[in-house]
Fold:
Amino acid sequence: MTARRRRRFGLHAKVIVALAVGAALVSAVLALSTFFFVRRDLVDQQISSILRQTYADARLVKLELGAPSAHIGNALASLAPANGALAFVHHGRKWYSSSASVSGKTIPRGFTRTVDRGNTAEQRVTLDGTPTLVVGVPIPSIGVEYFEEHPLTELASTLRVLATVLTTVAIATTVGGALVGWWTSRRLVRPLDEVVLAATDIAGGTLDRRVPADPDLEPLVESFNSMVSTLQERIERDARFAADVTHELRSPITTISASVELLGSYAGSLPDGASFAVTTLRLEVDRFSRIVQELIEIAGMDAGAAAVHFTDVPLADLARATAAARRPPVPVTVAGDAGRLVVRGDKRRLRQVLVNLLDNADTHGGGAVGMAVGVAGGSDAGVDGRAATITVDDAGPGVPVEERARIFDRFYRGAASGRRGATQGTGLGLALVAEHVRLHSGTVAMGDRPGGGSRVTVKLPVVEP
Ligand SMILES: Nc1ncnc2c1ncn2[C@@H]1O[C@H](COP(=O)(O)OP(=O)(O)OP(=O)(O)O)[C@@H](O)[C@H]1O
Ligand SMILES: [Mg+2]
Structure:
């Protein structure tokens, strides 16, 4: 489940990141190129308008200073260039300015020299932290140079606004890309989710589960469903075969058992060797007969042919009756509020669960030391979240933690199987317990008994009495 989530998250994340990065790249390229083109255009426009204004002002200055009673200060005062621009006249070594507070000496010397030599020039400089365009026009006919300083603050602030707008748009586009990616990936993954859910159900045993038709995934859904159908048919065929085989074994084994039983009654009159052989034969036939019985039961359940008779079973009564029939009887503890617990179940199967567990306690744990019926809460409890627990305790060696899940496998006999002759078991007892419990929507687990030994806990959903 977690792996599935991780994989899904991986796909989601990849699509989201891919689209967000794509959107970020495209919008960054667009924003940058827009910014540079617009800036170049604006700057060009501004410079040519400043140049136009400066040339016009220079012409005026030339006119005014050409008159006989000309005064440079008056000429400058009459100009009043727009937008905070300043005008200067350089005459000989002296500077005249349109502003009392700013002198023409702020103009870079190199630039002044260029204009002194008779060249019109413009240059972008930073004066007092303000980007400024300085323009110089020589007026040789009257022996002066005319300069203007135009602050470019308005242009700079326009460009700042433009940069802010473009950045915002780029960020919004990136977020938009991520959102589209999120939506797309959800849309992409949704049909796959159905397949994953169906696969999980099928793995959990719901073999008749199919994926609903989906136009986006038609070939996948079709082949998935047909694969599951094939699998289901095959599993059902195998289960039927096993059920038939075990069923067919029933009558020969009954005949053999009866014959061996009969033979056993003559054991006393047989020679020593033959009597030993008959005893061995009886043991093996008993074992064989038990295996066949258990196999018939398990195969029947696999094939879905198990005859189940559900009734209301008072659990404490069942436990007491089963325990009392044991030799020696096993003590049963019933928790205060567990006495009235009722399970909707098949009495024969539930009794067999208890008998198999008690048998195991005898065979592997030196005898059952107690059974207990109690109430359990929890989400796996079933009806109304209420469940009953039955525990079977022994004081034997217990089962190592790493074997606890496997002992419910068919034919698994744990460490005991290594010790030849140590047990007559077939390893089907707990497998049968697990099947019966599953049939009742319950769970069974092997654990530790406080004080040593093993404790098997069966949890069954209960109905209200
Ligand atoms: N109470 C227990 N204490 C220790 N080991 C146990 C206990 N119950 C089960 N086991 C281990 O789990 C194995 C599987 O148990 P299971 O009942 O399925 O098979 P079995 O008892 O060997 O054979 P049978 O089919 O005759 O019951 C046992 O062989 C044993 O190793
Ligand atoms: Mg057993």
About this structure: The radius of gyration is 49 Å. Residues 356, 359-360, 425, 429 surround magnesium ion (ligand 2) (CB under 6 Å). Residues 216-302 form a domain with the Helix Hairpins fold (CATH 1.10.287.130).
